Amino acid sequence: RPLLDAIAESALRKLPDFEVQELSNTAWSYAFCHMGHRPLILSIRERFLAIGRGADITATHGGRQSRQRNIVDIAAELDAPLGYDSPSLAFTAPGLVAICKPAGWETDVYDVAKFGIPITPVARFYLLSTFIGNLFPKDECPICHSAEYGFGFVHRLDQMSSGLILAASTFENHHHLQWQMCCYYIDREYIVLSHGQLRPSAPP
Fold this sequence. Notes:
By secondary structure, the protein is mainly alpha-helical. The chain has helices spanning 2-14, 20-32, 38-60, 121-125, 128-135, 171-182, and strands spanning 88-93, 96-101, 163-168. β1 (88-93) and β2 (96-101) form a beta hairpin. α2 (20-32) runs parallel beside α6 (171-182). The mean pLDDT is 82.
């Protein structure tokens, strides 16, 4: 414990110079080992929020633009090609939404075209960024169109899984959610539906 306290005190002095990934790593490390150093954790939170607020101000005043998607949305021109259900909003709050993601939709937290992968109209249709991008105009919620910030999503679900996806519509809330994820303040619960009775396998 004395060693961890000493590391925390050193980190506190250097927080103003930490990038987002360094902040995430530090918060996660102390949360994971159940050695929550409260002054450090709260200071990291304030640093996260300050970075997010700065990004919101910069985007609002036409400053540095984060990398945008470089493929054209064509979802509005198609009916659901494979018949999957459509996503819906389960919850909304200022700067925050919870999306009910049906099976078949990919939670794309990166620009799927940047790797040179051909994007078919069907694949384009079932990217969750298309859904959130259509909900929030780029000039009002630039994070929802930003590949650099994962279109506002803070976690993923496998394509053929269904469930709730948290997303932020402001940079400040995105950083706040990221801090909560790192500190295990957000719980995730998974439910598996199986057919038939599962029996434990015999010991080897």
